[in-house]
Every structure is written in structure tokens, then in C-alpha cells.
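Re: [ENG-882] Designed sequences occasionally contain unexpected residues at chain ends

Forwarding the minimal case from QA. C-alpha cells:
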């Protein structure tokens, strides 16, 4: 499994981008600007994770080894699914041998996707 480097790696689009003034509320525009300029968001995109949250789980696991030896995992509140992606990898889950149950209010794309 990929280790999280101490510093985020700059990839993808340029950072420091602004969002054009539209009908968006200022707070929404600021949120989008923060999101598109977030190095972890860009890194997640490049590395095929569904969300930047993947790096939080990898960091937690690096510190506390919570995934070590896991054979089956239930991911509660799983959407969009970056933790489930890691869970699938750790448990060796496949289409024929499913080892991760991902549950959420929201719809979530099936794996692999
Ligand atoms: C921060 S997101 C999880 C992100 C996810 N760990 C990932 O890596 O992509 C939290 C999710 O929890 C879900 N959620 C919150 N309360 C829930 C509940 N009671 N039942 C099902 N899903 C719930 C939300 O719909 C949301 O998608």
C-alpha cells in the first residue's frame, strides 16, 4: 500500500486558481477554490482515489496499524468510497470474493470504478 509522504506532492493542475464570480454564494466560491487548490485533492485524482480522505486513513493506519491483518471490513458512511478502495486492497477483495461492505445514505459507484 502507498505510504503517505510527509509533504503533499504537487501534481495536476496549477495551485492558486480562482473561481469566476458567478451566481455562487461567496462562501461556496471560497469552498470550491480551497477544494480545487488542495494538493491532496489533486493527488487523489492522479492516484485514482475517490476522495482526499484516503490519505487520512493511510495516515491513521501508518500511526496505529488499524488495517493490519484485516480480512473483512464494514465501511459505515462510505461514500464516495476512498476508504473502501483502501479496504478492498488491504483485504484482497474481488468481484468474486467480496470482503468489504460499504454502506451510505448516498449512492455510491460500484468497485472497481
Ligand atoms: C466524510 S464522508 C465519508 C468519506 C469516505 N470515508 C471516503 O473515504 O470516501 C461521510 C459519509 O457518511 C455518510 N453518513 C453519515 N451518516 C450516515 C448514516 N447515519 N447512515 C449512512 N451514511 C451516513 C454521509 O452520507 C457521507 O457520505
Amino acid at each position: 500500500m502507498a505510504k503517505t509522504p510527509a509533504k503533499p506532492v504537487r501534481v495536476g493542475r496549477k495551485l492558486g486558481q480562482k473561481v469566476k464570480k458567478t451566481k455562487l454564494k461567496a462562501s461556496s466560491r471560497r469552498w470550491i477554490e480551497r477544494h480545487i487548490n488542495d494538493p491532496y485533492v489533486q493527488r487523489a485524482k492522479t492516484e485514482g482515489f475517490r476522495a482526499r480522505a484516503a490519505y487520512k486513513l493511510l495516515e491513521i493506519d501508518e500511526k496505529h496499524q488499524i488495517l493490519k491483518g484485516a480480512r473483512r471490513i464494514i465501511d459505515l458512511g462510505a461514500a464516495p468510497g476512498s476508504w473502501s478502495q483502501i479496504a478492498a486492497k488491504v483485504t484482497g477483495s474481488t468481484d468474486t470474493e467480496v470482503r468489504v461492505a460499504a454502506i451510505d445514505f448516498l449512492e455510491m459507484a460500484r468497485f472497481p470504478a
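QA comment: On inspection the terminal residues look reasonable. The pocket of S-adenosylmethionine is lined by residues 50-51, 53, 77-83, 103-106 (CB under 6 Å). Proposing we downgrade this to a documentation issue.
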